[in-house]
Design a protein that fits this description.
heterodimer; A: mainly alpha; disordered C terminus; B: alpha+beta; 7-stranded antiparallel beta sheet; 6-stranded antiparallel beta sheet; 36% helix; 30% strand; elongated; binds protoporphyrin IX containing FE
């Protein structure tokens, strides 16, 4: 029997959510500013260098080789393929952006926790909560990764997505705190949904990296062909190969998480509906996503399928996740249609 | 990776695949078979089939599926007379048992078996063989390094190249490597070491377990059964074929598999949210108190059945999947006799339990009687005079009925849906649109039908539960194999498979020279760290002062740690 809820605390949580959104928007502005500024700096630096040396700059392209052979930096202000900090010029705007993201994430975390306390349960029981808690995990995972690798180049994407998720939650699915309907009263909600949201957050980051990888590899091809550099901001981004390798590592973790999500979902379904698998719409899409990423992992080990094709599979997998979370939750009927929409 | 390479060299040439088409006749029957088998078990085919499976699964979420919603499918085909039958021909309403979907996954699993067996054999050999021979030039490996032990130190501890190789092997063995010391009697003894064979093992376990999951699902489909039963408060269910409202046997079902346990619904309690305006009336709790008996004459046992908490009994699990109201209704016929009496299950159509109800009285004389209408737990009339329910709890229960007489069509033996009244051959007695209006009954009220056809009385109200009863002997297998798959997958993705070699030699000036190199299978970002860790272990072992002679410099933090380790080893070894 669920405990009563605390509506006032719920409102406090909503206020925090709003404050966090504002801080994220500010962070987003600085991330974009960083991209713009860095690419103009690089641009001017480069044209000067080009005038001085009159040699085509191939900077920003790591050697295509094993991850252990680190290519020496071949030009000015390029992202290090190891994605470690310390190379390249200081990026003031990016620092402010990260600081703001940390601030936003702290407020956001407070919002998520107060929501959970107000509702007397885990804060992921309806679409509003999936979005807000999911957005928090995206931000948190991004910040945790930042402590180890310099991934600030995906900052605008990640923070932009967090802003979109928060807007979707508050505008699209506003839901005051409430107790759970009987169908959701199970500890499998805690296990199944949390891992699903965490894996999706990881897939979000790898999606961004795969998109960048495609852009970067077409830019690399262009540069190698001696054409002009049309996307200077990609200077901030490591080579396509190192993007691919890091995305692979993160995707591997997320895939294990997704496999677990699928299994935990099956166990819960067995407990709630009497069968562990019944091709319910939501189950179908979870399976499709799993299969696509299994395909991605295979592609990485199949000659001719690494690189660009694998990146496309990672992107398709993520689009399926988005589809599953939005269209399927909202428009498809099925046993899972209790997301509070 | 290596696997993939060999696979690929077999089927690799995209062009020569086409070419071998031309050569086919000379391959002969067996040759063709072998060629097809190689194609099917290639990595590229596996990838293609996997992606095809993902695509093939999608239509099942776009069209209603027979196993889940047979009635919706029938309706869909009726509503779309042009496309419906075509879609049906393509089995788009039975996607997951369709010929094409089955073909894809069966091919995938044949490919999987064809892939796993040779790899398992190869892995078995690899486990039993010694680590690979030491390459001539370790400096060619992606991670490598050298360092030396000063002459006096080497001399003091009697560290010959052969002894050093033995000791290096011991250090590596402790770190989880399989080791092999070779050329111990030469000037250049070396150690070959390998670890992470569990990576491949994990991969094999993962793929094999997928077969196990599939087999478990098949076992459930063959030997399992499931059925549905609606039980009104006070009534019982007995686990026999006739006890069920609907029953779906697996293909190998026989009814001696049913254990004749029984289950009585003593009471059913429902709690709705009353504290919160935004969620007023949302369900909070459904609890069914039941009494079970393992068989005729067995002891009775009280149990609680809730959503998400099934009861296990007689090899089955019993689930609470629905509930609603069963108004108790008495129908008297034109001759004044009771034609039907008892609770009638109504079907809720919304969260406020506005329920559809159908009452049939085939025993009524001279004419059979039928009623269709609504049951409203808390009836309320809006401005237009339409009744609706305002609350899921029975604060003002009301029946709104239309009545019919004539032939209900129950006598010709065709199966009949108890929740539907076919009014085609019936004559309407009264309804909401007729002059004297429809039948509106509160609890305890009666209504006399026009033309002296009889009467209907709303005696009282009970609740009912809808139960799903499942028996699936494959369930445990599916759980075990999927858990194994998860473990195997984790091992396969996160264990690094590495080879490492150490070669030792004595410099003419008496120093002991140590050279090492590492090689990973596939991409391995942790390989340099492993190289450094092993170098540090060896240096600790042989007390090398950190003078930075090595090609791979030991990082600051590590060298200070080495400092503390020195005395430790000192006291231990000497
Ligand atoms: C039901 C179908 C299959 C599924 C769901 C599946 C799934 C996966 C997954 C998730 C991985 C990555 C994790 C790991 O390395 O263990 C993997 C790896 C692998 N699979 Fe499969 N697989 C399937 C069928 C096949 C088939 C038919 C083959 C053989 C042609 C195959 C060969 C491989 C190989 C060689 C690897 C290792 C790749 C590497 O070295 O990274 N798989 N598979």
């Amino acid at each position: 029997m669920p405990q009563p809820v605390n509506a006032e605390l719920g409102q406090v949580s909503e206020l925090f959510m709003l404050l966090a959104s504002i801080a994220y928007v500010a962070a987003l502005i600085f991330f974009v500013l960083d991209l713009v500024r860095s690419s103009t700096t690089i641009g001017s630096l480069e044209s000067r260098l080009a005038r001085e040396k009159a040699t085509p700059a191939l900077a920003g392209i790591g050697a295509r080789g094993g991850s252990t052979s680190t290519a020496a930096p071949t030009g000015p202000a390029t992202a290090d393929d190891s994605m470690d900090y310390g190379s390249g010029p200081r990026r003031g705007a990016a620092r402010i952006a990260v600081a703001l993201t940390v601030l936003a994430a702290v407020i956001h975390g407070a919002a998520v926790i107060t929501r959970g306390v107000a509702a007397n349960r885990v804060p992921w029981g309806n679409m509003y909560e999936f979005c807000t808690t999911g957005a928090f995990l995206v931000a948190a995972i991004f910040l945790v990764t930042l402590t180890r690798k310099d991934l600030r180049f995906v900052g605008s994407f990640v923070v932009g997505l967090v802003v979109v998720m928060l807007c979707a939650a508050t505008v699209g699915f506003p839901t005051p705190v409430a107790r759970l309907i009987p169908a959701l009263q199970s500890y499998w909600l805690i296990v199944h949904v949390s891992i699903a949201v965490a894996s999706s957050a990881l897939f979000t980051i790898t999606f961004a990296m795969s998109v960048l990888q495609l852009l970067q590899s077409s830019r690399e091809a262009k540069l190698l062909a001696g054409k002009a550099d049309s996307a200077r901001f990609l200077r901030l981004v490591p080579s396509a190969l190192s993007l691919e390798n890091l995305a692979y590592r993160l995707n591997a973790i997320a895939f294990v998480g997704w496999t677990f999500t699928l299994m935990a979902g099956a166990i819960w379904a067995e407990q709630a509906w009497g069968r562990y698998w019944g091709w319910d719409t939501k189950e179908v899409w979870t399976f499709v996503i799993w299969t696509v990423y299994a395909g991605y992992l295979h592609a990485r080990a199949t000659r001719g399928w690494t690189g660009t094709r694998a990146a496309w599979l990672s992107i398709v997998g993520y689009l399926c996740i988005v589809f599953n979370f939005t269209i399927v939750n909202i428009y498809f009927s099925g046993l899972h249609s209790y997301s509070g929409v | 990776m290596k696997q993939d390479v060999t696979q690929d060299t077999r089927d690799r040439p995209g062009a020569s695949t086409a070419r071998s088409d031309v050569v086919l006749p000379s391959l002969g029957f067996l040759g063709t078979l072998r060629w097809a088998w190689t194609q099917l078990t290639s990595m590229r085919t596996a990838l293609f089939l996997l992606l095809l499976l993902a695509v093939a699964a999608v239509p099942g979420s776009l069209f209603p599926q027979r196993p889940a919603n047979p009635a919706v499918v029938t309706q869909y085909i009726e509503d779309n007379p042009d496309t419906g039958p075509v879609l049906d021909w393509f089995q788009l309403f039975d996607v997951y048992s369709s010929v094409w979907f089955s073909a894809i996954y069966l091919l995938l699993f044949v490919s999987l078996i064809g892939c796993v067996i040779p790899r398992a054999i190869a892995h078995f050999r690899a486990v039993r063989s010694t680590p690979p021979r030491t390459p001539k030039r370790l400096s060619r490996l992606p991670v490598h390094g050298t360092f030396d032990v000063p002459a006096d130190q080497a001399h003091r501890s009697g560290l010959t190249p052969a002894a050093a190789a033995e000791q290096a092997a011991a250090v590596l063995r402790k770190r989880g490597y399989r080791v092999d010391v070779r050329d111990a009697d030469t000037d250049h003894p070396s150690v070959g070491a390998e670890r992470g064979l569990a990576k491949e093992l994990g991969n094999l376990v993962f793929h094999t377990s997928l077969i196990g999951v599939l087999v478990s699902v098949a076992v459930g489909g063959l030997f399992g059964y499931n059925g549905q039963k609606v039980v009104v408060e006070g009534d019982s269910f007995v686990n026999t074929l006739i006890g069920y409202d609907s029953f779906n046997p697996g293909s190998n079902f026989s009814d001696d598999r049913l254990e004749p346990y029984s289950l009585r619904l003593d009471s059913f309690d429902v709690r709705f949210d009353r504290d919160q305006e935004s969620h007023y009336g949302q369900p909070l709790d459904f609890t069914a108190e039941v009494t079970t008996q393992d068989g005729p004459g067995a002891a009775e046992e009280s149990q609680v059945l809730k959503v998400n908490a099934p009861i296990t009994i007689g090899g089955t699990n019993v689930y609470l999947v629905g509930n609603g109201y069963a108004p108790v209704v008495t129908v008297r016929d034109g001759e004044g006799n009771i034609a039907s009496q008892g609770p009638v299950v109504s079907v809720p159509s919304d969260g406020l339990y506005t329920s559809l109800i159908v009452i049939k009285a085939p025993d009524a004389k001279p004419d059979q009687l039928g009623f269709v209408g609504f049951f409203l737990p808390t009836a309320f009339v809006d401005e237009q005079g339409v009744s609706f329910s305002r609350d899921p709890d029975p604060f003002n229960p009301q029946l709104n009925l239309n009545s019919y007489y004539g032939d209900l069509g129950l006598d010709d033996g065709t199966p009949e849906n108890v929740y539907v009244l076919d009014t085609e051959n019936l004559t309407e007695l009264n309804s909401r649109t007729s002059d004297d209006g429809g039948i509106v009954l509160g609890v305890g009220q009666s209504y006399d039908l026009p033309e002296g056809k009889g009467s209907v009385t709303f005696d009282g109200l009970k609740r009912y539960v809808a139960l799903d009863i499942h028996h699936d002997p494959g369930e445990v297998g599916a759980l075990v194999f999927s858990t194994l798959a998860l473990l195997g997958l984790t091992a396969s993705l996160f264990i690094g498979r590495r080879r490492l070699w150490v070669r030792t030699a004595e410099h003419p000036d008496g120093r002991l020279m140590v050279e090492y190199g590492l090689l990973a299978r596939g991409e391995d970002h942790r390989l340099p760290a492993e190289g450094q860790a092993v170098e540090k272990l060896l240096m600790d072992r042989w007390l090398v002062p950190d003078s930075g002679t090595g090609e791979n410099k030991v990082p600051e933090a590590a060298s200070s740690a080495a400092g503390t380790g020195q005395s430790h080893h000192n006291s231990k070894d000497n």
